[in-house]
């Protein structure tokens, strides 16, 4: 492996890395081998050692169109020559109005309004606030509870961790959690659904647990249910057949808003603009981020139905209707990148490509069945995961070893617990997916 002069020059202490094992990373050059990124293009990164890595997770689920897409780069450069930052409060730009229109057009019928922020976490907070304020404006201020789901990931704001269901993200911050939140059970059941291709047959009935929560708390206290249609961060947990439809029915029956957190599933990965269209289930609010501009400049947002928006549009017209927003809401550079991303999605026929590539992904990853230490393989459109048997007494260690072995072989995977997640770029070829899978096979064998 090439020597890494750049690594040797760095003092690593000051940077507190997010969601990372800081001490392990900083401990030795060996632990950092191939883990300093120097450049990126298309589906690949190059490390400071000069090694090329296939990006098996599209950044962090955000760069589906490939890194440094020339059209996106050009759009942002052009924008910089015209307007850098334009304040969003009481002001606007033509670009941001046009972008909202385009996103609303891509969304399911009835979604007509877009609120911009800068990340998935902010999008979730925004959607939760919209839900509370909506009920209040309708005279149902008693609807204050949120229902999330075990193993759910909705970012790291206090709203997101409260409705989220990952214990590691919650336990340290228990004192700051939103009150009155409850959770649906997760749908990850290896005994019943291991090695399912696409949506598992088992688990539809788990949506009915909402009835139990309604019986416990009373519907009149519940503002919204929030779920990821496909759970990405917990390791690609695919909704059971009919599960989302059932949730929709129950929410409608009880006057509860349904929020789809589409931060990962929005803008391409499901082979449609949104998972709502892939499953033909229409929520009341949709959160998005990541793919909206291919991760080029931070951006997130919430898409609301006309009915929700209109509910806010009351009172004196000179008054602010929703006391919420961010300094960088609809940042000009993020907007420029998003317009270019939407252009590229159309010009490069991305949804159709994702649908066809998804079939290749399913074939290739399920070909790993039978390898030692694999206890599940699952897939959902252009997302897949391989779950490994934990090493006794050391959960997570096997996946770290696989991750490191794969880096040596030129592929960057994502691991969460003992799960290896894959979310390839939309521009990948079937051959690249096969190569990725073979690297995973070799890495699992080498990790032992
Ligand atoms: C479903 C979902 N919601 C929210 C978030 C948080 O997004 P961010 O990291 O941009 O705050 C993520 C991030 O992966 C996500 O997957």
UniProtKB/TrEMBL annotation:
Molecular function terms, GO-annotated: adenosylmethionine-8-amino-7-oxononanoate transaminase activity; pyridoxal phosphate binding
GO biological process, one term: biotin biosynthetic process
Stored InterPro entries: Aminotrans_3, Aminotrans_3_PPA_site, PyrdxlP-dep_Trfase, PyrdxlP-dep_Trfase_major, PyrdxlP-dep_Trfase_small
A Pfam family hit: Aminotran_3
Cofactor: pyridoxal 5'-phosphate
Keyword Transferase: yes
Keywords, comma-separated and alphabetical: Aminotransferase, Pyridoxal phosphate, Pyruvate, Transferase
Key word S-adenosyl-L-methionine present: no
Family, similarity comment: Belongs to the class-III pyridoxal-phosphate-dependent aminotransferase family.
Protein name: Beta-alanine--pyruvate transaminase
Species for this entry: Chitinimonas taiwanensis DSM 18899
